[in-house]
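To close the chapter, one final illustration. This time we ask the reader to focus less on the individual chains and more on the assembly as a whole: which components sit near each other, and how the overall shape emerges from the parts.
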Amino acid sequence: MRLGLVVDLDKCVGCNACAIACKQWNTSGTSGSLTDYRPYGPDPSGVFFNRIRHYETGTYPENKTVHFPMSCMHCEEAACVTVCPTGASYKREEDGIVLVDPEKCMGCNYCAWACPYGARELDREEGIMKKCTLCVDRIYDENLPKEERKPACVMTCPTTARYFGDFDDPNSEVSLASKKREGQELFPELGYKPVNQYLSPRKKVETKQHETKEPSLVKQVKDWVNQVVEL
Amino acid sequence: MHPAFSVIFFTVTSGAGYGLIALLGLFQFLHFGIFLDKNTFFISALIAFLLFTMGLISSTFHLANPKNAWRAFMRFRTSWLAREGLLAILFYPFLFLYLYLTYIDYQIANFILMQTYSFAIFIFAIVIIYCTGMIYACLKTIPQWNTLWTPVNYISIGVFLGSLIFFFILDFFNYEVDPYKFYLLLAIAFAFFMKLIYYFRIREPRHNIGQATNAAIKLKDTNVRLLDVGHTGSTFLTDEFGYKVASRKLLKIKLFAIISGFFIPFLLVYIHSFIYENLIFCLTAIFLAFIGMVAERWLFFAQAKHVVNLYHGSQNV
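The assembled structure is written out below.
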């Protein structure tokens, strides 16, 4: 199995609901808590597994805003696992989920240095590296109804911009979506083979701009005369 | 990258320590183990031991969860950090046995073995510095580090600092040091030119925001820029990787590192033999070289730009 997410950038409206749902579920989950620092202070900060950036592309009037959620890509060539000296970071054989064993992590930050996607954040209170677990404590939970065995971010997305499934299964939702819309990997140049994919936004319909012609000399003189007379 | 002082201190002092012990091994090898008297030999080894041990201890200060630090040797098959840690630990018994054999004059009993041992100490210490450099050089996410020149710099600077200290020790114990002056000057010049090549190599950014986002956004030939990063405060990522420093300040520190770290020590060593009572020259050279190399290592971190900055507003790294 190769579990992962597909994010449809065409549907995403950048509402941050996935980040909040993630925080809500995972702060009491197996990798919890997602500590907040100074939550009511002047400079609040804290741990998140999922962050949404907002980009603008093109030049006016052909510009477009793209909302861009980013979490762990559960890379096939996960550099964070390769560099981890303690063996705390590992990639599960059975489903490809990349996890951190909090019992082994020494908080050296080396995995965060190796990750190009900013998927790992150190919990400064606990001194342990935290990251997206793909809601491993949810997707296998047999006490949940079958349709709810999905990551919290996928469950909550109000525009259904997020899909979850097994990329090795050609008939899974993610494989079909990826095939139909040419799913793209993020930063492929680095060669980490991220599992998560993005569906690119459709091309915007070109906006026609009507240029106003410069008035003739006679018209300009008339306008000027009219202005003077009106004074 | 955020320049953590504990890591700067670790790389500079452990580099100097391993550089010194490597030179000691090489020196013993080249002089068939009979040139140095035991005092000089053991004091050199002690200084090297103190330097790399202090460095290794300081490297644990930046850990957020140091109680698990003992696990850091587990994944030596893939992780350069684990390799460095493991070799650094294995080096201790290897060195202690060597010191013991030297103490009992074992080269009289088995000359070939001691020659091999001396040379092995040299190689072992250099390999450890190489591993330290590779901790940084293996990261594809930080283009300014991801180059062969990083471990080359680490080794050449370690050998340079080590040779400076060794030169001082030899001088202190009234050895004839003039024959070694040339090699020391060569070590300083070599370290300097390797650093210059490194600075030349990292002058251009390697990745841009287009590479980081275009694959997904896929609207080619458009200039992508960050509208909003999505969080109002700082995060672990912005604190750790978003370290920014004015280019004028960078230039000043670079000049300081080059002048204090390479030029003045070079001059002091060069005029060393023309002047009576010259130990103070050596000591000043060591002091300035260390300060200069700390500045150089600070730059190594401050100038390094992690690709995650492309998702936080940088147009290129």
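Chain B has one domain: 5-311. The longest strand of chain B covers residues 225-228. With these observations in hand, you are ready for the problems at the end of the chapter.
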